[in-house]
Design brief:
A 9-stranded mixed sheet has the order 14-13-12-11-10-9-8-7-15. It has 3 domains: 43-206, no CATH class; 235-381, Alpha-Beta Plaits, CATH 3.30.70.270; 407-643, Alpha-Beta Barrel (TIM Barrel). The protein is an alpha/beta fold. It is 57% helix and 14% strand. The longest helix has 48 residues, at 180-227.
């Protein structure tokens, strides 16, 4: 990197890219670059040279005519003057290159007799030198050598002709004192030569300076296009990477703050892209004021990420400035109402990455942790975060592989009628098959991944298919009226295509629709209540019952039960955990059971795990129980034998009707 470029980069660290844009806009247009790249003489200079040469030739002819000397030179000068005048008159019809060639040939024509008839006078040789200089100035390559070679050959031919006596020249030195006309001719020749050489040099200097200016202007534009964000005029990631590369050799630790904004698309849709750009600009100005660092560098890494870096700013100052920026944006633009959130991550260079890509990966890991902590959180990257992210990615890959390769299977937990000592149904639950020697993720773990990645719909379809495939065997073992519940995500349940999917799977399995119960959670109430009512009605028309799982834990209310009819409600396990010691929990559980019966719903109490809980529930009539106290979830092959309930006796298979 040259010293000039280094100085420019240092200046860029201290100033806004807007100054670079203004400087570039004030330069000449790049459309002028092509003419300036040509180093030939301009039309205006050629026309002036033609006029001056024609005037000099005419004066020289007049001087010779008055002195009655050198008649051949007089005639040649007169003809050259006439030719050049005509050339100037038709200048618009003849290209500049040809006009200059005619001027050069006229010079050779005038120089030849001057050298022959007065070889001791300098005018002829000066004209030849001028012609050669014009040729080298205006043309390049072989064309530039054409006229000089012609001049050299002409002089050589004249020397041979003189030596052979074919041309007779005078050997007397010119008497300038007796003939002042000779002084006039020499002066005129010098005027022509000076005009040609001086004009050419001036033109070349002007062209070269213009070219340098245009090249610098183009370089500034290319620099801006390569290293500057077009929307916000901030530096981009390429420029930041370049600066980090320059500071790597110093061995010093620098800190980089990455601020991420989520929800900018909604802001752009509501207020337009210019409002988003204004947000960036206002935030940038606030950061500059808070940090007040000479070498502060602000870069827009992507559409929603801003990097703040300064070698001379301490980490806590970066955190404070970033939090001020986030607070300002929330206050001025009411971003909380629009759902826009800010998160920040702090990484160290080169500890957390020697290149920008590595730093951004580390920052992304910290940003994930900041999202978990909530809006406005700023998290400093730590090495253990990367390991945690790697483990999460491995878990996602395993869940995805299981989903693609039938890695899930169904287990079944019994629902017990305590009063009649019998199993009244089962709930189908998902389990994940082991992959090699690795530990198998539990249901809470892989269900969380499926929710986070948006795979619940595909997973729900697969588990529903597996449960319906097992249902015929369960009906043969426990009676044709046995019912099995399958959990379905709200997205799948409310899908318009779900009834058709369910109808197709029922036909493929060959079981009655009354054997199936579809369980949904209270999250389904977050959506459109009318869609929920229609979905429940469509399943009820098919003969499939609908159960409301985890009742009382989330969004439920009496109005929902009034608007939507459920065949079964399953009271959440949280109401059972403290029922042995908490009188209030007993009252709440009793009230929920009565509420279910009043709405003509079958009531199932989940999470029954101890004898004390069973004793506390014994006073509730007409409820079914489910939990580890009676049976753990078991695979199909174990259920096809005798189902042993440790605390409810042994139930034999019920013959199919």
């Amino acid at each position: 990197m040259g010293s000039g470029e280094s100085d420019r980069l240092e200046l860029a660290m201290k100033s806004s890219p807007d100054s670079l844009v203004a400087d570039t806009a004030s330069g000449p247009s790049l459309r002028r670059l092509e003419p300036a790249m040509s180093l030939g003489l301009s039309d205006r200079l050629i026309d002036r040279m033609v006029l001056i040469a024609s005037a000099a030739a005419a004066i020289s002819a007049a001087v010779l005519f008055h002195a009655q000397v050198y008649p051949v030179s007089m005639v040649v000068d007169a003809l050259a003057a006439l030719l050049l005048v005509l050339l100037w008159l038709v200048r618009h019809r003849i290209p500049s290159g040809r006009r200059l060639a005619c001027l050069a040939l006229s010079g050779i024509l005038v120089a030849a007799p001057a050298i022959v008839y007065n070889p001791y006078a300098p005018d002829g040789y000066l004209l030849v030198a001028a012609v050669m200089a014009l040729s080298f100035t205006n043309w390049s390559g072989p064309r530039a050598l054409a006229l000089p070679i012609a001049c050299v050959l002409l002089l050589a031919a004249m020397a041979v002709a003189v030596s052979l006596g074919w041309i007779h020249v005078t050997t007397d030195a010119p008497n300038f004192a007796a003939r002042p006309q000779a002084w006039v001719i020499v002066c005129l020749t010098l005027v022509v030569l000076g005009t040609a050489m001086g004009g050419a040099i001036f033109e070349l200097k002007h062209r070269l300076l213009s070219q340098i200016e245009l090249l610098e202007s183009g370089n500034r534009k290319l620099f801006r296009f390569a290293y500057q964000d077009a929307v916000t005029s901030l530096w981009n990631g390429e420029f930041l990477s370049r600066e980090l590369e320059r500071h790597r050799a110093s061995g010093q630790v620098h800190h980089l703050m990455v601020i991420e904004l989520t929800g900018l698309r909604e802001l752009s849709a509501l207020n337009g892209p210019r409002r988003v750009d204004q947000l960036w600009r206002e935030g940038v100005e606030l950061l500059r004021k808070n940090l007040s660092a000479k070498s502060l560098l602000l870069c827009r890494l992507s559409g929603d990420q801003l990097a703040v870096w300064s070698p001379e700013v301490k980490p806590h100052r970066l955190v404070e400035a970033s939090q001020s920026f986030m607070a300002h944006a929330r206050t001025e633009l009411s971003l909380d109402r629009l759902g826009i959130q800010f998160h920040a991550a702090l990484v160290s260079f080169p500890e957390h990455g020697a290149e920008l890509d590595a730093l951004r990966r580390s920052a992304q890991v910290a940003l994930r942790r900041a999202v978990v902590q909530g809006p406005g959180a700023c998290v400093a990257f730590a090495d253990e975060m990367a390991q945690q992210l790697s483990d999460e990615q491995l878990l996602r890959d395993r869940v995805r592989l299981a989903l693609d390769q039938n890695g899930f299977y169904a287990v079944y937990q019994a629902k017990v009628d305590r009063e009649h000592q019998q199993v009244v149904g089962f709930e189908g639950l998902a389990r994940m098959r082991p992959l090699g020697d690795e530990q198998v993720p539990g249901p809470a773990t892989f269900i969380g991944v499926l929710h986070a990645e948006g795979w619940m719909t595909q997973f729900g379809e697969r588990m529903l298919q597996l449960i319906l495939q097992d249902l015929p065997a369960l009906c043969d073992r426990y009676g044709v009226d046995i019912q099995v519940a399958a959990n379905v995500s709200p997205a799948l349940f409310l899908s318009p295509s779900f009834p058709d999917l369910l109808q197709r799977l029922l036909l493929e399995s060959g079981v009655k629709s009354s054997n199936l119960i579809v369980e949904i959670t209270e999250e389904v109430f977050v959506g459109d209540l009318q869609r929920l009512r229609l979905a429940c009605g469509a399943l009820r028309d098919m003969g499939v019952q609908v159960s409301l799982d985890d009742f009382g834990s989330g969004f439920s209310s009496l109005s929902y039960l009034r608007e939507v009819h459920f065949d079964e409600i399953k009271i959440d396990r949280s109401f059972v955990q403290r029922i042995e010691t908490d009188r209030r929990s007993q009252l709440v559980l009793s009230t929920l059971c009565e509420l279910g019966r009043d709405f003509d719903c079958r009531v199932v109490i989940e999470g029954v795990e101890t004898a004390g809980q069973v004793e506390s529930i014994s006073g509730l009539q007409g409820v079914f129980l489910q939990g580890f106290y009676f049976a753990r979830p078991q695979p199909l092959d174990q259920l096809l034998g005798s189902l042993t309930l440790p605390n409810a006796g042994t139930l034999k298979a019920t013959p199919a009707a």
